[in-house]
TrEMBL record:
The lineage of its organism: Eukaryota, Metazoa, Chordata, Craniata, Vertebrata. The chain crosses the membrane at residues 20-53. Its EC number is 2.3.1.-. Its main location: endoplasmic reticulum. It is found in: Endoplasmic reticulum membrane. Keywords: Acyltransferase, Endoplasmic reticulum, Lipid biosynthesis, Lipid metabolism, Membrane, Transferase, Transmembrane, Transmembrane helix. It comes from Orycteropus afer afer. This is Acyltransferase. One of its GO terms (cellular component) is endoplasmic reticulum membrane. It is an enzyme of class 2 (transferase).
């Protein structure tokens, strides 16, 4: 490839990533401001009509969303993929007649691997897993922002509340995949280069959910997810960590202080390999006991650890490094 063509391609990749970072961090606030501006201007009638429609559409984020194949196949997502690059690794076949709950690890700062692999077709999800429809679960607060919520649903993002996940996992005929970053927002505070700490030991709600609906549990590990940003030091017990945890409890979102290339919010160019493991078959148990939840959780931790150990050498993790569960 000529040098000029290569430079243009890299520049377009940077633009694709920056627009996504902007969308993730600021687009919601911009959309809200635009709606308020419209309400106070000449377009107030259109804004009022939208608000009426928004009220009628309020349950869509928790009833499967409103995905768009066109949006999921945008060329911008292929540029986004190639910037790092990001790949989706299949280890076994998944039966499209079943519903699945994917546990995604680690959360990372901005769950970039989860978005690229499950909210776009850039890494070939539908080709690798025909008959399955992935839905990435996102904090419910983001679906309260007008216009923004309609945009993110186009990619397959849905609310992460229990009603939303239950709706997907109870669909007759199968083919639904709910993707959950199990560690949640607090795990983002541990997302630093080289970190292998997972907030999983006491996270058992996903196991109970799988039992209630008989959904197969699938461990997913995204190698390289924590290498994409550097954070301001915030060790447990520090004043910064205490403030971040307090704000997370209040706002329900994590606020890591991070940077990437050139000290900006542009992620480092570092490969991400998202490995989808083998499913754990789960029998439908409408009212699972704590012992049943604990047993499934323990099995899941075992399978996730096995998945990590089997693939870590291939993706540059030293043999002496192991997962740390908190």
């Amino acid at each position: 490839m000529p040098a000029s063509s290569s430079s243009l391609s890299q520049a377009l990749q940077v633009v694709a990533v920056l627009q996504w970072v902007f969308s993730f961090l600021a687009l919601a606030q911009v959309c809200l401001a635009l709606l308020l501006f419209a309400l106070t201007g000449q377009a107030w009638s259109l804004a009022v009509l939208y608000l009426v429609w928004l009220y009628r559409d309020r349950d869509t984020p928790r009833t499967g969303g409103r995905r768009s194949a066109w949006v999921r196949n945008w060329a911008a997502w292929r540029l986004f993929r190639d910037y790092f690059p990001i790949s989706l690794v299949k280890t076994t076949e998944l039966d499209p007649s079943r519903n699945y709950l994917f546990g995604f690890h680690p959360h990372g700062v901005l769950v970039i691997g989860a978005f690229s692999n499950f909210c776009t077709e850039a890494t070939g999800f539908s080709r690798l897993f025909p008959g399955l429809r992935p839905h990435l679960l996102m904090l419910p607060c983001w679906f309260r922002f007008p216009i923004f919520r309609d945009y993110i649903m186009c990619s397959g993002l849905v609310s992460s509340d229990k009603a939303s996940a239950s709706y997907l996992l109870s669909r007759p005929g199968g083919g639904q995949v709910a993707v959950l970053a199990v560690g949640g927002p607090l795990e983002a505070l541990e997302a630093k280069p080289g970190a292998l700490s997972l907030r999983l030991r006491n996270q058992k709600g996903f196991a109970k959910l799988a039992l209630e609906h008989g959904a197969s549990l699938v461990p997913v590990f995204s190698f390289g997810e924590n290498e994409l940003f550097q954070q301001v030091p915030n060790p447990p017990g520090s004043g910064l960590r205490a403030a971040q945890e307090a704000l997370q409890s209040l706002l329900r979102v994590a606020l890591p202080l991070f940077h990437g290339r050139w000290g900006l919010l542009l992620p480092f160019r570092s490969p991400v390999h998202t490995v989808v493991g083998a499913p754990i078959s789960v029998q439908t148990t409408p009212r699972p006991s704590q012992a049943q939840v604990d047993a499934l959780h323990a099995l899941y931790v075992q399978r996730l650890t096995q998945l990590f150990e089997e693939h870590k050498a291939r993706y540059g993790v030293p043999a002496h490094r192991h997962l740390v569960l908190t």
